[in-house]
């Protein structure tokens, strides 16, 4: 075991870690920005549906980011693929959300605490994240 190798590459680890967290925060902010209610306030009030939806979105982002990290050849490549994947994930989430539940106002249902809807939407985000992550693996 060559401990010197790990010490020499530790800076790369930190750079990728910080970059990935920033990209994660950007993706989470985009999802929160597109949500018509305050997720923070509703989670504080004990709304499990909102918590499940947000957790699913975050998990989907993490799946996409891990694929971008594994597939990237440098930091710029990571940022480009991660941002493309985040945008695609947001768009696909909304398309699937509306395709499966056209006659239901999902935002209102989640805001009211409908756990089934929150879990469904969070699950869609994870599934879309897995698909998007697989497509950026080259």
TrEMBL record:
Pfam families: DUF350. Coiled coil: none annotated. The chain crosses the membrane at residues 13-34, 75-96, 116-136. InterPro entries: DUF350. It is found in: Cell membrane. GO terms for cellular component: plasma membrane. Its main location: membrane. Keywords: Cell membrane, Membrane, Transmembrane, Transmembrane helix. It is a multi-pass membrane protein. The keyword Iron does not apply. It comes from the Bacteria. PANTHER family: UPF0719 INNER MEMBRANE PROTEIN YJFL (PTHR40043:SF1). Belongs to the UPF0719 family. This is DUF350 domain-containing protein.
